[in-house]
Amino acid sequence: MQNPASSPIHVYFALLPGSLVLDWAGPAEALRIANQTLAKQGQPERFVQHFVSPTPESVSSVGAVLTQLEPLPANLPSPAWVVLVGLAGQHIAVDGDEARALLHWLRGLRPVAGQLELITVCAGAVLAVLAKDEPAASAKAAATRAMRVRFMEVRGLNVGVKMWTEAPARRPAVSTTLQPADG
Question: What is the CATH number of domain 9-155?
């Protein structure tokens, strides 16, 4: 068995119709650059990226058609990250077949730090909350999170991504920070 610190992290970007391109493409690029930096240093790549969806094809927030998406996996390797991203529009509709399939899949996941971690970007947190098995609590928490997201969008925030190497494990990591927009 490989040392978890040396095992590549499998990153699963869960995409639904209307997924915000910036929410998944930005982090995916940061991870690609981290891998590229490691390769230049003669080290193995740390991240294996997967783009998954309940359907093999999906239309993004800007109308780009994404094809050859992998199915939602029945089993995930360890370590793995599942990334939930925001969706276009003011409301997150979860009554469609794709959203229901994603929520069902999420309910079967059992995150454990360092083995399986759930990462949300912006309104992807609403999907995570809705995936819980407590409908009344989920609806209230989702509404609260949605209000925070709208507030952040109204205020205008810049997202900055920085990479660093953690010592002593010397693993690359990615941090996303929010800062007020200029002007």
Answer: 3.40.50.880
